[in-house]
Specification:
- The complex is a heterodimer.
- Chain A contains six helices and no strands.
- By secondary structure, chain A is mainly alpha-helical.
- The longest helix of chain A has 13 residues.
- Chain A is globular, with a radius of gyration of 15 Å.
- The N and C termini of chain A lie far apart (about 40 Å).
- The relative contact order of chain A is 0.18.
- The longest helix of chain B has 23 residues.
- Chain B has an eight-stranded mixed β-sheet, sandwiched between helices. In chain B, strands 4-5 form a two-stranded antiparallel ribbon.
- In chain B, helix 5 packs across helix 9.
- The chains are: A mainly alpha, B alpha/beta.
């Protein structure tokens, strides 16, 4: 299980602007030296947030990485309810 | 002899733009209402004249990364910085415009750390961890333009399994209360986060909360039923999206057997928002 590797990369994408820019420019090249399974690498290259989350990627990191391309894929808002209702 | 002179817990993304973007006008209106309530709580907090604030919150993978995840961590040193996130989006934008640096209550922090180790709590200590929105969004709302007293930031690992149990967090709060009681200081305890959101930390379930669970735990807090709260399991918190209740458990341990006064409760759909304080008279 390389949940650690997935999250270290996500953390770096959030905190390391230079790495984030390289990833934005060429995702496969930016990941060249990373210790990832094929499934993990594919999820990163496709920036498939749900798959990365299923592979153990931290939800909070996935929601807050400021990539130029493919920002967080948010779930649609739920139906609105009144404060204190139900 | 010292005392806990004020205690309050509240949701911690007090940033209307975030909820407007992700929920819509309904979300903005609800959090703006909550912000007004928290400002009123800040007036009561300020009137209590605390010498220090122990503020209990969680790391959103901003501070400790995955190289070392402390279950419970005391921030020591003389001052603490605001987290800096370039190109911030989502909840990280709640930090924008806040002061860069805040004073710490070094002696109280050291006493909590040292007494904790003496009494079997293997607290981690950090000299460098910055504060993210979980700490600063509530503090900025509580204090507004007033000077924030020296802080003792206290982190709970709410998100990286295995987390500390609710019972253990409450015990840590009891330890903090003992340290405060043996000190010369007036201390406020603030816990942040919640209520339920992001169940199972699953992206597929973002947008869901668990109002039934939230009503139950808030009712327990109003009734002073600390035993039922301490008996909750980490699995229940994970399933319902109540991970950040662990922060509140530290406060609950510190103030037990006091009963909570509910100042705000709102169901937004994406999250249930709340603000409570405790009658310590």
């Amino acid at each position: 299980v390389s949940r650690y590797a997935v999250n270290v990369l996500l953390y770096r994408l959030k905190k390391d602007r230079e790495f984030r820019m390289r990833f934005d420019d060429d995702r496969a090249a930016a990941l060249a030296g990373a210790d990832l399974t094929d499934a993990e690498r594919r999820a990163f290259v496709e920036w498939d947030l749900r798959r990365l989350n299923e592979l153990g990627g931290s939800l909070h990191l996935l929601l807050s990485i400021p990539l130029k391309l493919g920002g967080p894929e948010m779930a649609p808002p739920t139906p609105q309810r009144s404060p204190g209702a139900g | 002899m010292g005392a806990i002179v004020y205690a309050a817990a509240m949701s911690h993304v007090l940033f209307p733009e975030y909820y407007e973007k992700n929920v819509g006008a309904h979300g903005r209106r609800m959090v703006e209402e909550l912000i007004g309530v928290v400002r009123d709580m800040g007036t009561r907090l300020h009137a209590a004249q605390p010498d220090a604030i122990v503020i209990v919150a969680d790391d959103h993978l901003n501070v400790f990364s995955f190289d070392a995840v402390p279950a419970l961590c005391v921030r020591i040193g003389r001052s603490v910085e605001r987290m800096v996130q370039d190109d911030a989006i989502e909840f990280d934008r709640a930090l924008e415009g806040l002061p860069d640096r805040y004073p710490l209550h070094e002696e109280l922090a050291n006493r909590i750390l040292e007494c904790g180790l003496d009494e079997g709590f293997d607290f981690a200590a950090s000299w460098s961890a910055p504060l993210d929105h979980a700490f600063l969004s509530p503090l900025a709302t509580l204090y507004g333009d007033r000077a924030i007293p020296p802080l003792v930031p206290f982190w709970v690992n709410c998100f990286i399994a295995p987390q500390p149990t609710p019972r253990r967090c409450a015990a840590a709060g009891q330890l903090i209360a003992r340290v405060v009681g043996e000190s010369p200081w007036r201390v406020a305890v603030i816990a942040t986060g919640g209520l339920s959101h992001f169940p199972e930390l699953s992206l597929a379930r973002v947008g869901q909360s668990d109002p039934e669970f939230d009503h139950k735990i808030v009712a327990w807090m109003e009734a002073g039923d600390h035993a039922s709260l301490a008996a909750l399991t980490v699995r229940e918190l994970h399933t319902t999206g109540s991970h950040e209740l662990l922060n509140w458990m530290v406060l609950l341990g510190a103030v037990a057997p006091a009963r909570a006064k509910v100042r705000f409760f709102g169901e937004m759909g994406r999250i249930d928002l709340a603000a409570l304080d405790w009658n310590l008279a």
